[in-house]
Amino acid sequence: MISLPHFPEHLQKLGPHTGKPLDRVDGLAKVTGKALYAAEHHRPGLLYGVVVSSSVARARIRSFDTADALAEAGVVQVFTHQNRPKLASRSKKWRDQDTPKGSPFRPLEDDRVLFSGQPLALVVATSFEAARHAAALVRIEFDEIEQPETRLLERLGQGKAPGRAKGGFTPPPGPHGHPQQALKSAFARVNADYLVSAEHHNPMEPHAATVFYEEDGSLTVYSKTQGPVGEQAFLSAVLGLKKDRVRVLAPFVGGAFGSGLRPQYHLVLAAMAALELKRSVRVVLSRQQMFTFGHRPYTWQHVALGAERDGKLVSLVHEAVAETSKFESYVENVVTWSARLYPCPNYSLNHRVVPLDVYTPLDMRAPGAVTGLFAIESAMDELAHELGMDPLQLRLVNYGEKDGLTGHPYSSKELRACYQQAAGRFGWEQRWSEPRGRREGSKLVGWGMATGVWDAMQVPASARARLHLDGRLEVASATTDIGTGTYTVMTQIAADVMGLSLESVEFKLGDTSLPEAPLQGGSFTVASVGSAIKAACDGLRDQLFKLAQKMPNSPFYARSQAEVEFRDGRLGLPGHPEAALSYAQILRQQGVSVLEEEVKVLPNLLKQRGYSLATHSAVFAEVQVDEELGTIEVTRMVTAVAAGRILNPKTSRNQLLGGMVWGISSALHEKSELDLELGRFINHNLAEYHIPVQADIRHLEVVFVEEQDEIVNPLGIKGLGEIGVIGVAAAIANAVFHATGRRVRHLPIRLDDLL
Amino acid sequence: MKKFAFNRAETLEDAVSAGASAGVRFIAGGTNLIDLMKENVERPDRLVDITRLPLGEVKRQADGSLSLGALVSNAAVAEHPLVRGHYPLLSLALLSGASPQLRNLATVGGNLLQRTRCCYFYDLATVCNKRTPQTGCAARNGINRQHAILGHSQACIAVHPSDMCVALAALEARVRVLGRQGERTIPIADFHRLPGNEPEFDTILRAGDLITAVELPSNDWSEHSHYLKIRDRASYAFALVSVAVALQLDGEYIVEARLALGGVAHKPWRLESAELALRGQRTSNSSYQRAAETLLQGAEGFEHNRFKIELARRAIVRACAEAAKGTRR
Ligand SMILES: Cc1cc2nc3c(=O)[nH]c(=O)nc-3n(C[C@H](O)[C@H](O)[C@H](O)COP(=O)(O)OP(=O)(O)OC[C@H]3O[C@@H](n4cnc5c(N)ncnc54)[C@H](O)[C@@H]3O)c2cc1C
Predict the structure, then answer these.
(1) What is the Å distance from ligand 1's center to B116 Cα?
(2) Cβ(B170)–Cβ(B128) below 8 Å
(3) A190 pairs with which residues across the strands?
(4) Residue A248 is inside which H or E element, if any?
(5) CA–CA min distance B119, chain A (Å)
(6) Distance CA A544, CA B253 (A)
(7) Chain-centre distance of CA A264, in angstroms?
(8) Cα A656 from Cα A671, distance rounded (Å)
(9) Three-class SS of residue A260?
């Protein structure tokens, strides 16, 4: 069961639509099948490409035998590295908006096999069935098949510093104070290693690209992506086309979770084939192939904590060693969260990566934070137990009024309220301190809690607003809606700023012909694109007001804009209902058919300078563990979130519930099983790659805590896409300890860990 | 998936004679076969659709046994009043498997013949003796959490994944088969086989053999039975270990017992000696433990599944205790 929404009334509103739990504006299109996804766009003559994946992880290709495949009826071509058309040769051209240091993977580059599942050929045919069958007929001979290097735990000592290259990554600072000494003399200590498994994103919609070859030789690409603008730049660089010869569209995206941040190989292959064959081509990856590109990296962590008798931290050590590929140095923020969250006079943070024969890991929902918070919030629980202290009390004793790394105050931080409200709803004050202290029948009951933190980011974004003569407002930005509710909240913002009904506003996204927007990621879309939309609409208001002033006998002539109101599609003067003019009237009178405003909005760095910007959460979980059989159920979970202004409690809550379910998934289910001999993720289907089913999800509750923030961005919002998943695994692991007295320091926790 | 021909069998004899040619597969619900075809594990030249054959009935027979037609859906068997009333163990086992959608399509015959879920069996990039004889077994040193602890061989450590068959083993069901030599009845214990050197054969069936029905003997075990399935999530997962148990009690004493394990071997695992160990014993954990020891004798795990031995022991004790309390309905 999932509890009814808990919507606080106090959240301030921009207008009548924001702050309301409104349904998705695209909901009907989605449930009636009118919303078309990347693989659902069609034109006569479309060709179908199927990828042939490598069966080995490390080798050289000796030869291809494509005769049988080519002989199949309907097969048009089989592309391999030997016959592919020319693609950009310089590594730089293959960079995208989320590229780590290194040299990006290029499909069909040469005879080298770098990872298991690598695309080695593309079979193109007139039907999907023919292409798939022919793909199975392509025979590939290998030379120099070598044992892949896959064992992270045997190479922990060989980790190297990743460097700064990847956007969003802040290398941890050098040590502060004397952490080792402080640890030695601390009253209580924790010293432990933690492991987080690899996971694959596995959005419901598999990755796909439909590339239409236009009469003039340009490409129209329907893509599963989180950033069409980035893909356009990438494709034009890789294919050597002018940017205006490639248009990328992604009007609907069936989940992505980070897997659509980087252009994947299917896109290159589809576009390459279309250009070469001068035909439209679609490539869809199979579920098995969804396990052949980025994943959340398998990561080892070490945490040491030292504290005084009262719980105050005196030493904090957090180290991570994560896998990466041999060709790129993927990295994410894993260890810095600890020191930011818990100010400590002596700390040491370290992050290293070990190259293995796997594909480069890839940002996955709350990259780094899911991993890092599992370790630090488990370690804090261990410390509380050492000290005989309530785990929540330990967090409060070490509460960071300021960012523990930068020393900056927060633009806002209502984490304390999160703790209090979530603990209150959960009933934490009834907690018993001893592990194994409560049972119900054959089951042990346990409670655990943890903290979540994520950056509140804003990045540059553009938007356009167009007011039409018939009173319709068209708003547009080349962002995407990856299931997050972007269509809905942008419509709400525009409607409220312009004083219009939702029905008269249409928001367009997912198209490179629209004003530029960043990738949808990092939970910064609403802050960035929403701010741009607000600014565009503000600009329209200015224009409207000026036009109205110019009208003969204008009631607004001697007024300032602060005195007027934009409401119900009319410009009015409070107290003078007779003066009100509809927007359409103003446009008509002034002979303007459409009023347009396009803006680019940058974060106000001046205002933000000297502040730390972050979203926080507190998670409380109850588990029941069958003492004999080890089976674990999460029976109850409450999350309280402080994320600034909540624009739509319904879509927001939806994001948080999704995050909480994913948290249960990482805690108890999800694991990409790498066969260490083969270097191959072997449970590559949704029967064996477990995520929770409905029966695993019981009572979930979301609380939004009031948080006002004038600094973070003009809308005062912080983003909600990732915070819901962070800390959940630790809360569950801590509850498992409380139930059973068994501390499990790896994810997922499965019944055999408790036998 | 390769191209294949398709036709519909109009009569039982049609099906049997068509099925005898090489490269022919019957298709019933298709929930297993189609998946395997998509992955190129099964590559039939021809599918013979048997769903129009008159095998869709559940019938009481003269000798009191119950006949489940091979084409009755898993859902219909589980919900049938005679099954729920007299063989609740079977009903429970079926309902613990797959999902409602799959159970609506899956048939009795298809369930008996469903193939292992071993990841390596499904992945053509790896070696597998069951898929391609004499190539090797990647599971032995690979990810083998789901694999066998009993009855495995050098060649194969796969398990039979069915829940239904575990209940059928405990209930001593019989499989009715129509072949080129006519009809025959095979006790469920002899129907599936251990892998040995020929893991490519899951059962003793021969080409063209058509399952027509499963018969449940009249001696029902409805009062004290239980099916316990332990898996990695609450539903929609194959068993790590499952236990089908049925007891006949006289007060606190066990008169007769039936006990079978799923998820541990290439076939439902049942030993008469384990059941004998329960006969005449008190309904107590120590009796169940002794039976568990007997049933698990010789169990041997691999890197990722050793825990199954202890898990199975505990699951047997729990399932027996639940059964002794009376069938949960
Ligand atoms: C995601 C998923 C989860 C599942 N979970 C479970 C689970 O938890 N527990 C469980 O027990 N099962 C589970 N199953 C398996 C399911 O029970 C089987 O797929 C189903 O029972 C097969 O029946 P079918 O009629 O669809 O067989 P088909 O796929 O049609 O056929 C399977 C095989 O049987 C042969 N065959 C079918 N009928 C006959 C006949 N009358 N005579 C001779 N040969 C015949 C076919 O030729 C084929 O080789 C799951 C399946 C899936 C896809």
Answers:
(1) 10
(2) no
(3) A305
(4) strand A246-249
(5) 6
(6) 90
(7) 16
(8) 22
(9) coil
Asked if B308 and B264 touch (Cβ cutoff 8 Å), the reply is yes
Q: Considering the domain boundaries, does residue B259 fall inside one?
A: yes
CA–CA dist A391, A745 (Å, integer): 17
List, for residues A526-549, the tens digit of each pLDDT value.
999 999 999 999 999 999 999 999
Q: How many CB atoms lie within 10 A of CB A169?
A: 22
CB contact under 8 A, A628 and B233: no
Integer Cα distance of B224 and A603 in angstroms: 69
Rg (CA), chain B: 19
Mean pLDDT of A185-202: 98
Ligand 1 pocket: which of B113, B118, B131 to mutate (most atoms <8 Å of CB)?
B113
What's the ipTM?
A: 0.97
Percent of chain B with pLDDT over 90: 98
Helix spans in A409-559 (H): 415-426, 486-498, 525, 531-550
CA separation for the pair A84, B133 (Å, rounded) = 37
Domain count, chain B: 1
Query: Can you say whether the dihedral through the CA atoms of A435, A437, A439, A442 is positive or negative?
Result: positive
Residue A153, Cα to own-chain centre: how many angstroms? 27
Torsion sign over Cα B172, B173, B179, B184: positive
Distance CA(A108)–CA(A568), nearest Å, equals 57
B99 found inside a domain: no
Distance CA B239, CA B265 (A): 11
Q: Would B30 be classed as within a structural domain?
A: no
A673 CB contacts (<8 Å, ≥6 apart)?
Answer: A681, A682, A683, A688, B119, B143, B145
- Closest partner residue to A133 (CB to CB) among B2, B124, B240 is B2
Domain boundaries, position B267: 225-325
Please check whether residue A625 is in contact with residue A745, taking contact to mean a CB–CB distance below 8 angstroms: no
- Tell me the pLDDT tens digit for each residue of B40-85: 999 999 999 999 999 999 999 999 999 999 999 999 999 999 999 9
Residue type, A295: H
Q: Are A382 and A190 in contact (CB under 8 A)?
A: yes
CATH number at residue B275: 3.30.390.50
Contacts of B122 in chain A (CB under 8 A): 685
Find the range with the poorest average confidence among A118-132, A549-563, A686-700, B303-317.
A549-563
Q: Is residue B206 a contact partner of residue B192, using CB atoms and an 8 Å limit?
A: no
DSSP readout, A296-340? BPPEEEEEEEEE-TTS-EEEEEEEEEEEEESSEE-----SHHHHH
* Pairing assessment for the beta strands A443-455 and A614-626 based on DSSP bridges: antiparallel
Please indicate whether, in this complex, the C-beta atoms of A695 and B3 are within 8 angstroms of each other: no
Burial of B325 (0-12, 13-18, 19+ CB in 10 A): exposed
Domains of chain A as residue ranges with CATH: 1-11+409-457+613-755 (3.30.365.10), 38-146+201-291 (3.90.1170.50), 459-602 (3.30.365.10)
Report if residue B5 sits inside a domain.
Answer: no
- Which one of B122, B230, B233 has the shortest CB-CB distance to A696? B233
Does B149 contact ligand 1 (Cβ within 6 A)?
no
Expressed in angstroms and rounded, the spacing between residue B235 Cα and the centre of ligand 1 is 17
The predicted pLDDT at position A2 comes to: 57
CB A228 within 8 A of CB A196: no
The tokens of A203 are what?
Answer: 């959005």
A506 is catalytic: no
Say if ligand 1 is within 6 A of residue B162 CB.
yes
Atom of ligand 1 nearest to the CA of B212: 41
SS3 at position B13: helix
Residue B82 Cβ contacting ligand 1 at under 6 Å: no
Residue B113 Cα to ligand 1 midpoint, Å, equals 6
List the alpha helices (DSSP H) in A226-278.
228-239, 265-277
User: Which among B1, B2, B234 has the least Cβ separation from residue A693?
Assistant: B234
Burial (Cβ within 10 Å: 0-12, 13-18, ≥19) of residue A507? buried
